[in-house]
């Protein structure tokens, strides 16, 4: 093959630049290889090496029958901190790539016969950093045509994709694990497209709703499977959660009747909406859980509490009546001091028992929709003062009342008093170290607001969203403070039924501030 020698110093131009590998190629003793010194190299080789050195994309070249090797700085990191670099430069491919030579050689040979290859995310195990590493590549071997029209070498343009492949594998594994968890928890999964109002659900959801196992289902068909009394509530919740400005959280329980089998189930749907930068909902997905058994158990618990509290009511009422007679007798009859002390203690404890029983009876009434309200117009400020005078007599806490003197509302005096007594009672109970309670009365827009602030143990903000739930107690198992976790639930129901609002702000260790509002009359 007649090869044209590039006159000095022109060949230097081809080998200029190229960072570390440029420097190594320029200073390498090529006379010891079958290629000879660069001034004797064919222009095709010089041009290819020059392209490699100037490229920021990883490239590797096998040249001639001995597959003498070149590579650039972009390729260099793939050889690891220790291993083939820099010994691979100027060496024959067979010597450098013993561990995978059987896979590499055929590809070089194909290029030497003028063919190209392309492989994507292919595993090419290689020795680097003292061990055989699992390395993935996307690469192409292509022939380098020389001056006589034949192929003089194989140029490998490549990109190491190990990180991507491993990341994809991790995603696959995570998806499989998630699938196992969904199966184990017997959860339904769904995803609603906010633009088209069509949704994709897993087989379990489709079965529960009695819908076909098609890839996409119209939201309207799913809504049809919801019992009529829950439909509007669910539709509104979906619309509200997707509205700009919503926190995107969806959590709702409702009953479905399978459109196929008619089977009835109570389900709890939980989901999250993702919004784009313009506040537009782009994705809405979540899970569905069958809570039929839990609801049934809850119902039986409520029934038991209802029966038990009604059964307790008669003996406690007659006990109370007897004790009241005893308390009167103690004042008029000559009895020992011990007798007086124990009668007073019995009276106190019976009072507590009556309050606990009242809470249980109130809950039953709320659930059966029988908590009747008897409304009148009255000055809320007066109620607060009267109520606090009363509470102060039996407590060593100092209650100060500030704010507006006239705030007329149309409400059930006894029930609002019950809410206030609960707030102040809690403020006293949960402030064992501090004796100060501040009550503020104010007008906010068209509402009257009452704030009860204490300086007691406070509440962890994480717990605040559950505080008005039935039976919820922050320290459920702690016996430091007695209670049933019903007072705030009852208060919340009373206030909502007056079209008011109820809330709390608190920090653990820094006291709490409970408030409620009522429309001004
Ligand atoms: P309870 O009978 O347990 O006091 P409530 O419904 O009145 O029931 O209150 C629910 C829970 O809220 C309480 O168990 C307590 O953990 C917390 N809580 C209520 N008021 C206060 C307060 N002022 N300070 C700290 N925690 C409070």
TrEMBL record:
It is an enzyme of class 2 (transferase). Residues 250-303 form the PAC domain. One of its GO terms (cellular component) is membrane. GO terms for biological process: osmosensory signaling via phosphorelay pathway. It holds the Pfam family HisKA. InterPro entries: BphY/WalK/GraS-like (IPR050351), HATPase_C_sf (IPR036890), HATPase_dom (IPR003594), His_kinase_dom (IPR005467), HisK_dim/P_dom (IPR003661), HisK_dim/P_sf (IPR036097), PAS (IPR000014), PAS-assoc_C (IPR000700). It is found in: Membrane. Gene3D superfamilies: 1.10.287.130, 2.10.70.100, Histidine kinase-like ATPase, C-terminal domain, PAS domain. Transmembrane segments: none annotated. Residues 307-521 form the Histidine kinase domain. CDD domains: HATPase, HisKA. Keywords: ATP-binding, Kinase, Membrane, Nucleotide-binding, Phosphoprotein, Transferase, Transmembrane, Transmembrane helix, Two-component regulatory system. The keyword Phosphoprotein applies. Its EC number is 2.7.13.3. It is a multi-pass membrane protein. It catalyses: ATP + protein L-histidine = ADP + protein N-phospho-L-histidine. GO terms for molecular function: ATP binding; phosphorelay response regulator activity; phosphorelay sensor kinase activity; protein kinase activator activity. SMART domains: HATPase_c (SM00387), HisKA (SM00388). This is histidine kinase. The lineage of its organism: Bacteria, Pseudomonadati, Bacteroidota, Sphingobacteriia, Sphingobacteriales.
